[in-house]
Structure formats: structure tokens, C-alpha cells
Amino acid sequence: MPVPTHRRGRYWLIVISTIAIGLAYGLYGLPLAPVVLLVACSVEGRIAAVGRSVLDGLLADATPPGLQGRVQANFATATAAGRLMGSVGAGLLYLLRPGVPFIVGGAICALTGLALLLPSLARLFVVTPPTDTPSPQR
């Protein structure tokens, strides 16, 4: 199934996927039936796959030619550092109660998605095509 980024742009899919991942991730901390958790896990994984690929495409579009490799490497490094810090923080929150890391992590993710709705942040993600390169001949 193609992702309709050509109509509304990639930004909105990033916002929607971030909020949806936060909501699905928060379900893991609640005492729910195993079937519900499996469905939430499946939905979260699919949304994360779409959101990550859309974000990679946005990064590639927003980066000047010749710098895409460096930008993707920096993004991967920042992602790995965030996962490391998140794991340590989740381990500390787990000491309070086993479900707390999931609820806090889901809330952080959902609030980040809501913060991306602010107009000042939305302007940062607008990608304009370069004007100095000629358009391809058809």
C-alpha cells in the first residue's frame, strides 16, 4: 500500500505516526488482555516502519546534495544515543512499578507529536525544492 505523501507532504505522516506510536506504546503499561497487547504491538510496528521511512525521506529531501550520508549517520547516532538514554531511564522507572516506563515513554512520544503541531516547529520541516537545478526533461 503506497503512503500518500505526495498529497499532504511527509510532515503530517511524521506527526500522526509519532502520536499513534505514543498511544500504542502507552498501552503496554496497562493491564490488558494478551490479544490486545499483540494487536497494539503489531500496529505500533507498522506505524513505526512507515514513520521512520517517511522521516528518512524528509531528511534526504531537506539535505543538500553530497551531505545526505553525513546527515543520515548523525541521525542514526542521535537515535542510538536516545535509545541508550531511554533504556537507562526506563530501567530506573521500572524500579518504581513495571508499567510506568511504558506509560511515561508513550506520553513523551505522544506529547512530542503534539508539539510538532505548533506552527513554529512545523515551519522547520517545510522542504522547498532547490531553484538552481533544472527540472528533468520529459
Automatic annotation (TrEMBL):
<dbReference type="InterPro" id="IPR036259">
    <property type="entry name" value="MFS_trans_sf"/>
</dbReference>
<keyword id="KW-0812">Transmembrane</keyword>
<feature type="transmembrane region" description="Helical">
    <location>
        <begin position="75"/>
        <end position="95"/>
    </location>
</feature>
<protein>
    <recommendedName>
        <fullName>Major facilitator superfamily (MFS) profile domain-containing protein</fullName>
    </recommendedName>
</protein>
<dbReference type="InterPro" id="IPR020846">
    <property type="entry name" value="MFS_dom"/>
</dbReference>
<keyword id="KW-1133">Transmembrane helix</keyword>
<keyword id="KW-0472">Membrane</keyword>
<dbReference type="GO" id="GO:0022857">
    <property type="term" value="F:transmembrane transporter activity"/>
</dbReference>
<feature type="domain" description="Major facilitator superfamily (MFS) profile">
    <location>
        <begin position="1"/>
        <end position="138"/>
    </location>
</feature>
<feature type="transmembrane region" description="Helical">
    <location>
        <begin position="12"/>
        <end position="30"/>
    </location>
</feature>
<feature type="transmembrane region" description="Helical">
    <location>
        <begin position="102"/>
        <end position="126"/>
    </location>
</feature>
